[in-house]
Specification:
Elements: E1 39-47, E2 52-57, E3 62-63, E4 68-72, E5 76-83, E6 87-91, E7 101-104, E8 110-117, E9 126-134, E10 142-150, E11 156-163, E12 168-170, E13 172-178, E14 183-190, E15 193-200, E16 207-212, E17 219-225, E18 237-247, E19 254-262, E20 267-273, E21 279-288, E22 294-299, E23 304-312, E24 318-325, E25 328-336, E26 348-358, E27 365-373, E28 379-386, E29 391-401, E30 407-415, E31 418-424, E32 427-429, E33 435-442, E34 445-453, E35 459-465, E36 470-475, E37 480-481, E38 486-488, E39 494-501, E40 506-511, E41 521-524, E42 529-536, E43 539-548, E44 552-557, E45 567-573, E46 577-584, E47 588-595, E48 603-606, E49 611-619, H1 635-650, H2 674-691, H3 712-725
Parallel strand pairs: 1-8, 35-42, 43-49
Antiparallel strand pairs: 1-4, 2-3, 2-5, 5-7, 6-8, 9-10, 9-17, 10-11, 11-12, 13-14, 14-15, 15-16, 16-17, 18-19, 18-25, 19-20, 20-21, 21-22, 22-23, 23-24, 24-25, 26-27, 26-34, 27-28, 28-29, 29-30, 30-31, 32-33, 33-34, 35-38, 36-37, 36-39, 39-41, 40-42, 43-45, 44-46, 46-48, 47-49
Helix pairs in contact: 1-2, 1-3, 2-3
């Protein structure tokens, strides 16, 4: 074994539920009970810190630079969150549901403002450098180094690989997908073996820890995005080492921690501590090319430790290396020292990729976890799964962080009903404060994990619309809309919404977030969601019929019936007062309303039940009064009656327009004939028969050609009978 033998990285058997993305919300820490002091400090915590600003009214907080201020106890303070470009404000945690947010001083001590950045397929576009360590049963640890170029669709369009088995070559095209919270999954084929990968892209979109989830060869890797220019000076400084490896000839997982300080030429010295507590002095030398690819070695005074491949991230504070030395192989992750840290940097949801192995026997596995911490470093929730198909919840725990970014802590878990504890004996937060590298230990297994800070906890907003009333409630609880219509939930939580209509109203359905229908609505909280519930009052049908001897139309207000010229219907909300307006056609006049309205005035119908209204229109006859022996019988008198009778016939289905003798009557040219009068009588009688009505006898029931004189009374009584059928 090399000098790194016995360095046993503490491995965490984090069982995460099926990529159960359980991300708990960052709770605002409650202040102590109010005291009699004249003023009480109130603090704003931003997640993430670069996401935006929070200001107060009255003035005092501009966070920004000033995130704590003392206000009079019991007073009301309004806070407004303003996101920076590229970020969105996603809520205040449990403290408030609106923006601006008003709080009572003394009841809330810390107000958490959640800002989030989005992710898209374009974030994967470009060249990535991948370094990983895998193992299999029987014991066969090996490292891989690859470059992959992805297009905007996430397809691998080029790349090469090499590994410690001596295999190398081009990559068979694969593909990757990025999801709302920056979660990435995909696959690529290496030396004929398809590798399935899953991970989380950091908010700076340049560091992508990934689990190699292939069942037979579980592993952990890191992909670093290409770009930028590099020189040896970028290596200068003190680097914190977190390493995990295993012996080739036997199962002997090692966890190593330490530091090395390099000069601008890439050379330097330091020390490492093995998992058995042995401390070893080291010296090292590294070189870096213009694209940030790093190679180097350590001299331990025993066997040399070589780093044949490595990559510095674009931010120049995170360095990933694969290790080869004697009979051991490993993955070495270094974070650059610098910056100042506090427990507030721990607050938020962390996505944890972990690869572990049992110390007593070869049993490699991966695990995926999501853990949420508050601003005091307390674990307030989470979940996990692993390659053994175990899942569980994280029920508590805590972490501490030093001023230089050193981290240690533990989490409490509940797996298959059995409690357990996973410890993290040492680790380091990167200067960007979005990536953490740690060693883990769980039930006789040790491992190496990389955690990436996630986007803020997503909020669910319920909107109500429609003419009716009702409430929407949620399971898990949080929404009772009613009054509370927005709530933030643990990432990946399935929230079921139930709508209950108020008395006299009806729930008519959901819209938004993929919800439809009138049953319950279930949404997955992987991003902010908005769901709309529509409530309606009962509706009733208003039917309108147009009848009479002349045409016309009816229109309603509010809209529903528009230009109705026959039989029309529309539904109106119960209680609506509908005003109908009648408009006569050419040659006619509005006569009256019938049914739910009567008379000739405005028709207003209150829709508390189904209603029917008839609008009657009358033909306007030329020479309204036909005076015997005075009024000259004209062609227009016949054409008026023809139009009126045909209109009546059209109002009774099955009666076509009548075929008139001499269809065109030319004034002072077409002589009046017996057939003209008998046609009118016949056509009108057919309409009466269809309507199952009768009229009085005609004057001169028999019209004899050459004998009966067409009189004004003949036409007047036809006009009367037309009115009788209206």
């Amino acid at each position: 074994m090399t000098s790194f033998a016995g360095v046993r990285p503490l491995q965490s058997r984090w069982t995460v539920g099926g990529i159960l993305l359980l991300v708990s919300i960052a709770l605002a820490a409650l202040s102590p009970p109010p005291t009699l002091a004249a003023s009480v400090p109130l603090t704003v915590l931003k997640l993430d810190a670069a996401g935006g600003t929070v200001t107060s009214d009255p003035p005092g907080i501009n966070c920004g630079p000033t995130c704590t201020f003392s206000f009079p106890q019991g007073s009301s303070v309004e806070f407004t969150a303003s996101p920076n470009p590229g970020y969105t404000f996603t809520g205040w945690g449990y403290s408030c549901w609106t923006n601006p947010c008003t709080v009572t001083v003394g009841q809330v001590g810390t107000l958490v403002a959640n800002f989030a950045t989005g992710f898209s397929a374009s974030d994967l576009t470009g060249t990535w450098y991948f370094l990983g360590l895998e193992d299999s049963i029987p014991n066969d640890p090996y490292w891989s180094w690859a470059t992959l170029t992805l297009n905007a669709a996430g397809t691998v369009i080029g790349g090469t690989y090499t590994n410690s088995h001596g295999q190398s070559g081009g990559l068979t095209p694969g593909s990757f997908v990025i999801y709302d919270a920056g979660l990435v999954s995909g696959s690529v084929t290496v030396a004929g073996n398809t590798k399935s990968l899953f991970g989380k892209l950091d908010v700076n979109k340049g560091i992508l820890p990934m689990l190699i989830t292939t069942t037979s060869q579980p592993g952990l890797g890191v992909a670093l995005k290409g770009g930028g220019s590099f020189s040896a000076a970028d290596l200068a400084g003190t680097w914190v080492i977190e390493d995990f490896g295993d012996a080739v000839d036997e199962n002997d997982p090692d966890s190593i921690r330490g530091t090395i300080t390099l000069n601008s030429a890439g050379s330097g010295s330091g020390s490492v501590t093995l998992s058995d507590g042995t401390s070893i002095s080291i010296s090292g030398s590294f070189s870096i090319n213009s694209v940030g690819v790093v190679t180097g070695s350590f001299d331990t005074g025993q066997e040399p430790v070589n780093f044949p491949h490595g990559k510095l991230d674009a931010g120049k504070t995170f360095l990933a290396l694969v290790r080869e030395g004697g009979a051991e192989r490993g993955l070495t992750l270094l974070t650059k020292s610098g910056g100042s840290f506090s427990t507030s940097n721990l607050a938020g949801t962390w996505y944890v990729a972990n690869r572990s192995d049992a110390q007593s026997l070869n049993n490699p596995y991966w695990s995926w976890s999501m853990v949420t911490l508050d601003s005091a470093g307390r674990v307030i929730g989470g979940g996990y799964m692993n390659s053994f198909d175990n899942t569980g919840t994280i029920t508590g725990g805590s972490f501490t962080i030093s001023g230089t970014g050193g981290i240690q802590g533990s989490v409490n878990k509940l797996e298959n009903g059995a409690p357990g504890v996973i410890t993290f004996p040492h680790g380091k937060m990167a200067p960007n404060k979005t990536v953490v590298v740690m060693a883990s230990s769980d039930s006789g297994s040790i491992g190496q994990m990389v955690a990436v800070k996630g986007v803020s906890v997503p909020s669910l907003t319920v909107a109500k619309q429609g003419t009716g009333a009702g409430t929407v409630t949620s399971s898990p609880s949080g929404i009772n809309c009613g009054a509370t219509c927005s709530k933030s939930y643990i990432y990946g939580t399935f929230v079921t919404l139930t709508a209950t209509a108020a008395s006299g109203s009806t729930f008519t359905g959901w819209s938004g977030a993929g919800c439809t229908g009138t049953g319950t609505c279930t949404v997955s909280m992987t991003q902010p969601r908005t769901v709309t519930a529509t409530f309606a009052l009962p509706t009733h049908t208003l039917s309108v019929t147009i009848t009479g001897s002349s045409g016309g139309s009816v229109t309603s207000s509010p809209p529903g019936i528009s230009g109705c010229t026959g039989t029309c219907a529309a539904s109106f909300t119960s209680g609506t007062v509908v005003t109908l307006t009648a408009s006569p056609g050419t040659g006619g006049a509005f006569r009256e309303w019938r049914g739910a309205c009567t008379g000739t005035g405005t028709c207003k119908v209150t829709m508390n039940a189904a209603k029917a209204v008839t609008a009657v229109f009358s033909r306007t006859f030329s020479d309204a009064t036909l005076t015997p022996h005075v009024t000259e019988i004209k062609a227009v008198h016949f054409t008026d009656l023809r139009a009126a009778i045909n209109t009546l016939r059209s109002h009774y289905q099955g009666l076509p327009a009548f075929a008139w003798t001499d269809p065109a009557l030319t004034p002072r040219s077409t002589p009046v004939k017996r057939a003209h009068l008998t046609d009118l009588r016949t056509a009108l009688d057919q309409a009466y028969a269809k309507a199952k009505k009768t009229h009085a006898a005609y004057t001169d029931p028999t019209i004899t050609a050459g004998q009966t004189i067409i009189k004004a009374s003949h036409l007047s009584e036809l006009r009367t009978y037309v009115r009788g059928l209206e």
